[in-house]
Amino acid sequence: MAFIVDKCEPWFTGGYEHRVLALAQGLAVSHDVRVYTSLPVASVQREGVQFVRCSSLTFQAQHSGQRSLLHGLRFALALRHPPPGLVAWKPDLVIVEAIPYLHLRSVDRWARELGCVLAIDVCEAWLDYPYWRGPLGSSMTHVIARLLRKGVRDSDWVIAISRVTAQSLERNFGADPGRLSVIPLAPETPVASTGRTAAPVAEPRFDFAYVGRMVREKRPEDFIGALGLLRAQHGWVGRAVLLGSGPRLEPSRKLVRRLGLESQVELPGFASPAFRNETLRSSRVLVLPSEREGFSLAALEGLAHGLPAVVAVPKYPEVFGVSEFVDDGVEGLYYPVGDRQRLADQLSRLLEDTELCRRLGIAGRLRAAQYRWEEIVDRLESEFRRVAGVEPAPAAT
Is the pTM for the entire model greater than 0.85? Predict the structure, then answer.
């Protein structure tokens, strides 16, 4: 089984980067799995998975938080021909990550010649969402929609990260329900079926935590602005943290200084998984102000740690993937995207109503317990057999 992805953990961080690594490692237990991606070396073996370079890291900083268009173009050009060794190896299944879209046509051409099952893995399927502001953004959205529609049409199997994404693929991009599967993410933090995890610290260090790339669409400054309102209107004296790197990191730090929140708000930049998990353990509430999410691993990780999630409701339903596992008033609280006043009110509500915060946290852990990598990998294998028309192996006696 081969994965084609422009970025992958551990060289890059992010939701779909982690998704590919976790799926590849899970499948490698019983299959020969190779990941063709962007690497600083020709190839490397990690935990049973062979990683092979099909593009360099020339135009993509590893922890920049921002996607490089030049990197996407370079990746697409590199895939005009099959990656090194793939033709001789001849995999049964090729899973190509849809993002950054430009490479889909090239992969389809040579995958057909190999005679393998071609699957497209889709983490976001937005139709009207403006990738950039203004006329250029509308044009880019149109181009991406055309590339994705063709990729969906030409593939044998379409994999969606959530039901929300699957519904958009079916409704807006012509995906055939019979060859459409939902394969979600799972948290790194182990959660027992009872909802039990490692015990949180006795006195959390942070009231609120943000985890994610510091980019425009994640809207970290909405969170900081809401904290300013929380202090001015409700006398908030606690602490908050924003973990992540990207082009909005420095503007966010400037906003913290302008609002006089330096002693209350920390922005340490890029965080390792261990530091991120320790920070979540030491927090009370996770905040997700993003205007678009195909799923949101950060929110699911927060639930696994028992944190209620305060999430923005986007303008476009097809990018509200977090609604897959966070219901308003059950595992978290909603507010309209961009409404800093409403966000501040929801944060104040959770600080004042400790019973509500506790109840949401318990429900969140129970919801996170429903997502396990072992079961997700089993589902992927089962769905592959169904799409490929392969009978499952007989049970051992």
Answer: yes
